[in-house]
Design brief:
The complex is a heterodimer of chains A (349) and B (393). Chain A is built from 14 helices and one strand. With 349 residues, chain A is mainly α. The chains are: A mainly alpha (349), B alpha+beta (393). β1 of chain A pairs parallel with β1 of chain B.
Chain lengths: 349, 393
Amino acid sequence: MEDMPLFVLGLFASSIVAAAIAILYSLVLPGVERKVQARIQQRIGPPILTPGFWSVLKFGYKKRVEPNAQMPGLYRSLVYFGIGIVVLLFLFTTPYWWAVLGWGSILGIAGLLKLEEVLYVLMGSQSQSFLSTGMPVPDIAKGSKHIGIKREFVEQHSAERALKMMAIGSLPLYVALLVPFAMARSTMISSVVAMQNPGYALSSDWLSAPIPSSPVLFTLPGILAAIVYFVGYVMLLNEKPFSILKAKIDLIEGGVLEYASKLRAYYYIMRNVLMFALSSIFVTLFIGIPFDPFVPVMMLLNLALSLLLPLMLAALVAFSPILTFRQIYPAAIGLSAVGVLALIISLGV
Amino acid sequence: MTSGEKRVEIEKELSFGPVHPALIEPYRIRLFVNDEIVEDCELNINMAYRGIEKLFDGLPVERALLIAERVCGICSHVHAWNAVRVIEGGLKIAVPPRADYIRVITHEMQRIASHLILFGHAFEVVGHETFAMRSFLLRESFMDLISYVGGNRVMPSVPIIGGIRPRADLTESLKRVILERVDEFEEKYKGYVARIIEDPLVMSRLTGIGFLTKEDAIKFHATGPTGRASGWDYDVRTKMDEYKPFDFNVITDESCDTKARIVVRALEVFESLKIIRQAVKNLPEGPVVNRSWKAEEMDFTTALLEAYKGELMHSYALDSQGRIRNYKIRTPTPTNLAAMEHACVGDHVTEAILTIASCDPCLTCCTRAEVVDSGKSSVLSDLEIVRKYGWRK
């Protein structure tokens, strides 16, 4: 018990350092993603720092625009909740948090991810931009074949799609997440890392560099689960081909449409940190290299390998159309089946 | 509702536009949906009036034809050509064969550029940015060629009454450049089309949606590639004297869906390449313009031409001083609109917008009449114009 104050101090220090590095690093990821896409499309693309860093800074200085949401206060607060959720999601996978109330477990990760998904439903149900039903066009006065029909904002339709994606779209990611835990026969992240990287311990020396001896990624169930995780990652980030809840051609930006100026900057931070957090979780769970701010080599390795998923995402986005629910349902069911197969194999390993 | 009519349950209405990032023109889509399924659709145009038909009234015919070219930026040549065909038909003005060939070459070049714009837009709607951007990249070859011929990428101003502008005449070196560019383009374009057809994700988005049967296409008079993708082999070019020297096929498809509309256009590009090659290789010698004509009184005359999106009609009369009276233009989109509304029923919401885009609408060109009366500008329907000012005096 006499170590408790030291542990709490370490927890605070590691959390502040990790959150700061995560936010700063995540601001670079969109630039990398856009650059890869541009090269595929034979374009030069924007400078690396522009889409993530400078655009966030730019929006921070824009004039404040009040959203036309039903409850503007709630709508504004959702993005702050979002940042809190994704930062906590990332922190839960850093070593100091593994020992705190069991949050460093699959339950902590899955619970926060579900909360993050719920945010899009709430955002969509709140937002009421003028780009659809609110547009002052005299077509109501001119009449229609269908009288007295409920008119819906595109954001509300986005909320309905977010609900569907919550129900089925995120299933593959959760199934894939289970595989490393099933292989470690534990719900704790510490056990998953210990199984892959026995040399790593919380008390690792500053300059130590324990290399994982048996990463989950290099096993059959691991590779199957990694594929499913990657597609689930794309689904959770609402990126193409699974960006139906913010399809530009109909719903424009979906529930986040009314986030402007500072709120838009915060939304970008939320989205970027989520992208990094999910990549970092992948490196921690499937390769066995956690983000430990007090072991620089491990931290740098985690950061470097966390580029893998955004790079693959960029290539996928460049070559994919937006899928509708006609394709998303069978894709999600098929991928979940692959995930379940990986789970069954992992239980036998 | 009669007993035989199918009862349609509508849960809600979703409306998009006229200001919307994905609708590149000012129109409004009202979708009446059940969950994600479109049960009915209403396309509202009339969001941007330019009053261009009114601008023609009273202008000398030569000046008016410059305005005709500006009806549309994508179809500029076809409007200019059809405008001169009206007077050439009405006053029996002979056009030298060399001029006809060069008009056809420009027409087919712009058809390719137009179809590639559609691919760019359709793949943007599908969400496949890479295919969209490659399409615009490919289009550049023909934008360059159009500027070499006409001196301008968008408004080449090639046709004039009785022929073409002398500056648009093809030199031997330009003929060589055109043939080389056409060969280069064809090779790249084949690869592009193959990649689209072999992409299962893209094909899954295009196949089996936006059905428009041949009967419906004929009923709504959905002309151009939209009708041909429903198996209706209607192409005004087959009836035109200007196209008699050329061997080409009218591409049709019986699939009647969105994929068919894309595929028909993709294959039409190859036919256009074939026509351009024939026209350049067999270009007759001789003058490019016949200036022995005089503007005189002409009764209402109509000319039809196969524009890139469908059948185009221009119609006007000339008074005794050779000034234009009652210019009327019917672009392909007004008749294709009803087909678009019909085709997207049964699609998902996201697919419905793709179905509309696949019919290649050009909506700003649809409505042109504006009446300025006692200092106040107001927009009247055709019927109101007739009631107020009488029928084409």
